[in-house]
Design a protein that fits this description.
The protein is of the alpha/beta class and 526 residues long. Helices cover 37% and strands 19% of the residues. The strands form five sheets. A seven-stranded mixed beta sheet has the order 8-7-16-17-18-15-19. A five-stranded parallel beta sheet has the order 10-2-1-14-20, covered by helices on one side. The chain starts with 8 loop residues before the first strand and ends in a 5-residue tail after the last helix.
């Protein structure tokens, strides 16, 4: 075999989990890493795309506070060689827009709590307890996370500790709220950010709700230059150690020899012709999600004892995303917040199904403006995201992208117009500022990412997900591992920490402590 087909580690997918893992093992362990990406761009949901003078991020719209001496900030700085710069989003960074009032959240935990109590004074005791429980749930998650990759002699006592507090932490979010709160509006307001974890309160674990609230409680940040700068600042270290990041390379199957991963079979996707290639390594890591990993990559003759559980809990959430180019600065419309969660009622289950969206009449959307985040942006843009069931688009699944029935494109136009009008009713004049609009559907996401049904996230953040003992870095196949969101939690930062988890495991029983020490050692990364 040709030497350029042999590597120390092969990573399938190029999302932030993969990039983090590759960046760490390249810098610390001097490993020759191969990243294989089926899309034409590296970065997964952290890449950007452009049309004319406009540019949009496909997945990273903002992250919460990860700096101020925190490990998450150290990891980001380490893998990007300290070159990626972040800026705090202008305040108030969130606006929760309801029919009869708008609540604006500032990046200040004390102010957030105080503003809630001022609005709902009769719920003061419950609100104070809620913030304590949010913090407790986050600490529970940290233990859960460590147990995904640390050796058994350390994780067994940690799991016993977590089991003592599991009942409340793994409650359904709406059950928690119904138990401790009375005011319907307050319960809806507290869960306004449910789109950040992809499930309405009636289905999500209180744990994931707490993780998201805690993550954003002190404000939001955005990478200078856009999310594509994440990959731009990680890839050089990978290449400096002889590694490569190959696009248009779709891994079709794991190569297994005597229950050990030895390489991957790859479809190389070229416009002129496609062909099959093989790459080999003693370590192979999947960053394409547990579901795709266990149902598509591993040969059928390799037994996976928990495969039915994996399939059962994979109830995906999907959305449409309208990428809008704006003629002017929307601050002239009185818009000051960067992120807007707009709802026409207090019923988040209705907003999740959003059944009237396909009729051009959405019930909810998330609206985000780039100009408040990337001060170097050449033109003002926005993205409007709304949840919708995959079934609304399923009949066009087997038609080629760009060549689907006329009915499909008419539906896209109707949805686009409906979303623009929905925003315009809340912010009059918005519609007249729209210069360009391009809608992606669940089929778009499915085409580019191969996620089941174009899923936004990995395995849904239900209580059942966090009870799965098999959901960890190590797989039943020797030399084959998981990384990314499914061994952590949903979102960019948890996915990054999934990369750290896998790198820690590959560095031995105390690998986590070794890597943390390495990150602290060089002041460039602190």
């Amino acid at each position: 075999m040709a030497n350029n087909n042999h590597y120390d580690i092969i990573i399938i997918g190029s999302g932030i989990g993969a990039l983090t893992l590759a960046g760490i093992v390249a810098r610390v362990n001097k490993k020759k890493v191969l990243i294989l990406e089926r899309h034409s761009k590296i970065g997964g949901y952290t890449h950007s795309f452009s049309r004319k003078k406009y540019k949009w991020d496909v997945g990273l719209h903002y992250i919460g506070t990860i700096f101020e001496g925190r490990l998450t900030g150290r990891v980001f700085n380490f893998i990007t060689n300290g070159k990626l710069k972040w800026q705090k989003i202008l305040e108030p960074f969130e606006a929760f827009v309801y029919p009869d009032f708008t609540f604006k959240q500032f990046g200040d935990k004390k102010k957030f709590k105080r503003d809630l109590i001022n609005l709902f004074p009769e719920e003061k005791k419950a609100i104070e307890m809620y913030f304590r429980d949010i913090r407790s749930a986050y600490r529970w998650f940290l233990i859960y996370f460590l147990c995904r990759f640390m050796p058994a002699f350390l994780t067994i006592p940690l799991e016993l500790i977590n089991k003592l507090f599991q009942k409340k932490i793994l409650m359904i979010t709406s059950d928690y709220l119904d138990k401790y709160f009375k005011d319907r509006k307050l319960k809806s307001l507290l869960t306004s950010q449910w789109g950040n974890y992809g499930l309405p309160p009636s289905r999500s674990a209180f744990l994931i709700h707490a993780i998201v609230v805690n993550h954003f409680v002190n404000g939001g940040y955005y990478p200078k230059g856009g999310s594509e700068e994440i990959a731009n600042n990680i890839v050089p270290a990978i290449e400096a150690n002889g590694g490569r990041c190959l696009v248009n390379h779709e891994v079709s199957q794991l190569i297994v020899d005597n229950n050990r991963a030895v390489g991957v079979l790859v479809n190389v996707l070229k416009k002129s012709k496609s062909y099959t290639e093989r790459y080999y390594a003693p370590v192979v890591v999947s960053n394409i999600g547990a579901y795709n990993t266990y149902t598509k990559l591993i040969p059928k003759d390799v037994p996976i004892p928990f495969i039915n559980k994996c399939i059962k809990i994979n109830n995906t959430s999907t959305c449409v995303a309208l990428h809008v180019g704006l003629k002017d600065d929307v601050k002239s419309l009185g818009i000051k917040s960067t992120n807007h969660w707009i709802y026409d009622s207090y019923d988040h289950d209705r907003h999740y199904s959003n059944s009237t969206l396909v009729e051009g009449n959405p019930s909810a959307c998330y609206l985000s403006f780039i100009f408040h985040k990337d001060l170097k942006a050449k033109a003002n843009t926005a993205v409007i995201i709304a949840y919708v069931y995959y079934s609304k688009f399923k009949k066009w699944k087997h038609q080629s992208s760009g060549k689907r029935d006329k009915e499909y494109y008419e539906l896209k136009d109707k949805i686009s117009t409906g979303l623009i009008n929905f925003v315009d009713r809340r912010y009059p004049g918005f519609r007249n500022m729209v210069d360009h609009a391009e809608l992606s559907t669940p089929l778009t996401s499915e085409h580019f990412t191969a996620h089941p049904e174009g899923a936004m996230y990995g395995l849904p953040a239900t209580p059942e997900r966090y009870r799965q003992k098999w959901l960890k870095v190590k797989t039943p196949v020797k030399g084959f591992y998981l990384t990314g969101t499914d061994i952590s939690a949903l979102g960019i930062v948890p996915s990054m920490m999934g990369g750290l988890a896998t790198a820690s495991y590959l560095n031995g029983p105390f690998g986590f402590f070794k890597l943390v020490r390495e990150m602290k050692r060089n002041k460039t990364y602190s």
